[in-house]
Amino acid sequence: MANLFYSLIDQTREFLHVAETPVPSVGEYLKKELSQHAARWTEDEGTRKLKLAILNSFFNLECCVSGTHSMDLVALAPFGEYTVLPGLDCTFPGGYQGLPDHIVASLPQDVMTFNKPVKTVHWNGSFQEAVSPGETFPVLVECEDGTCFPAHHVVLTVPLGFLKERLDTFFEPPLPTEKAEAIRKVGFGTNNKIFLEFAEPFWEPGCQHIQVVWEDASPLQDAAPAMRDAWFRKLIGFLVLPSFPSAHVLCGFIAGLESEFMETLSDAEVLQALTHVLRRATGNPQLPAPRAVLRSCWHSAPYTRGSYSYVAVGSTGDDIDLLAQPLPVGGEKPQLALGWDDVKAELVWDVGWCAWLWLLCVASLPSAWQPQSRLPSTGVPAAWTPATKLESQGHLVPRSTGRPRFQARMRAHLPRSNQRPGLGTESCCRLSGFGVISLTSSAEPPPDTVCWGSHTSDVLLHHARSSAVRLEGG
């Protein structure tokens, strides 16, 4: 079933440059093709239903990969513009927080300001500050506590979900109509992780992934049970994390409206529901409940309002490219640049050198950050070569190559505008980021200025060895 499903996923690339697609969405195309395949199956009814149930689990998995509630929401034509990022999966000692901590340690003191929620970004104006009498700035960042920061340039990497919610009030003057419309059209979904900690593992040694398949589910059926009674059925399964003597942890993944509903529940309710799932999966009604649960809540978080962007039905890759263009449009001195996981923020500084920042959630930093001594197409030395520093100082720990490893199936939309002579993807500095506003109040950017974020909803999905579990009913 996996070969069938992913062969159809590969076929979606055939529509990348066609004038008209047979159906608007990836989901509709997949279901149409699967219906034709299912009509040719010769097995008994029970086997046919099981095949459809397994295929439904792949649909749920693909929702996690694409960051959407349903593949019916993902546009078919631009789906082929996505690529799977290469490289090893890496784990940071002490958690992902070690990355921003390391970056901050390399910066001069007092250049970072935290806990300053921004109310409005004023741009295309003329602002002054007391410490620089006579000098004017085109941008002013107004914070909720009344503090204001004037700047020549602002890089804004708050997530698309936040911009969708605050679009009418966050910018003054409002963004140009075409940019605002692109923000509204591009999709943004929720993908969450749920960690369950056990005193003792119930899974077999060497098990790396537990996949859950509901036998009565089918991608060809549109009817869905009540959310409260069945939200956990959207869970694709659990990744078995490396064990420690005192802790054994499973990490589950869930996307879409079910993921958002999960956020409204208490920890006790989530733990109870997933304990029920695991007891049914193992056939052991006495299976000890997890002793702790930890989960992300990206949709509830006021400054994210979701996890990942995707090219929705009604939008195209042109919308991504449009959002990457700095403001004002056609201006000699860019003032405002937007960027998040699918958008490359492109800045051209006053002194004439260019810095390309790819604000991507990447699961493999060594391949995403190419060590380089100078920024592309410029004469300005790069202040920081992340891959070199992190590897040499032991802040990256590649997973062992001596065992079957999980692949990080992260798709990244590569804007067509990036394909320019002399500037390939390898020469871009790709940063995992959100929720960061970078201000530059001088003609030349400070040599040690770095933007980053902490959006770490990376999804490890494709497994080399797994346990598949079939479940019936609710």
From TrEMBL:
One annotated GO molecular function: polyamine oxidase activity
Cofactors (names): FAD
GO CC, alphabetical: cytoplasm
Domain of life the protein comes from: Eukaryota
The name this protein goes by in its record: Peroxisomal N(1)-acetyl-spermine/spermidine oxidase isoform X8
Sequence similarity: Belongs to the flavin monoamine oxidase family.
Gene that this polypeptide is encoded by: PAOX
One of the GO BP terms on file: spermidine catabolic process
Keywords on record: Cytoplasm, FAD, Flavoprotein, Oxidoreductase
Cell compartment(s), UniProt: Cytoplasm
Domain Amine oxidase as annotated: residue spans: 58-330
DNA-binding found in the keyword field: no
Residue ranges crossing the lipid bilayer per the database entry: none
InterPro entries recorded: Amino_oxidase, FAD/NAD-bd_sf, Flavin_monoamine_oxidase
